[in-house]
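Write out the 3D structure for:
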Amino acid sequence: MAERDGYVSPKEVELTIHARWARVMGQIIGFALVVVLLMPAFAQAADISDEAKVKFNSAVEFATAKKPDSAIAAYEAAISLAPDYLQAHINVGALYYDKGDMTQAAEHLNKAVSLDSNNVAALKSLGLVHFKADRYADAVAALNHHNALDKTDAGVWSTLGLAHKKLGDDAKALAAYEEAVRLDPKDYKTFYNIGNIHQEAKDFEDAIGAYSKAIAVNSGYIEAYYNKAISSHQLDQDACVPDYEAFIKAAQGKAKWKKQVDQASQIVKQIKEYLDSQGE
């Protein structure tokens, strides 16, 4: 729709899409301890000494008790006794990831993959480590290998989409995101990411649809209300007021959103004044 005198141009609205990506990255964190607790010592029983298994089981107990440093020390002790202890490499790599030590995490997880190139837990963890370390092409390789073996993990598809996005391939990012939400229709952050891709491509109807799905899952997701209002403004200056008002209602009283709320309130006021002046 052509702009008319008296309207606030959508170009005047401060787009904050890219600033939101960092927050969404937080969805991939927190995976590590799940891996730790799912790897019991019975694995590789024929190849691992009893002493190494004792150290491994001690590490699992420490991890369960939320004592990651003690767990790491015990896993490292198990590995010193059994250098090819696959499960220990996976678990300690996950703990290093959780601590933010991507160098040690990658070292152990690469070792795990060298021991079993089709181990989906090792591949998933390695993909997350590469992503966290900004090695996006390596993350894509590890996660694609994982998906060739197991296509059912929504979180892997979502992280794969983030990695493709970082590499500038929006088409592959969108395909991965779509698979993630097919597997997990409650993944509102990935719906939000889908909306962002459509918004950046000026596919505003599809962007609105994706943001609406994010809001349907999480009615308090302010970022989705905000970007939905922006897309609505870009698409139809006559019909965007309800979306701005929904954003204002969701964000009202939130200090970090004050600027955007004030701006949206001014936009709504000006549009309503214009429509009233035209008898619409």
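The chain is about 70% helix and 0% strand.
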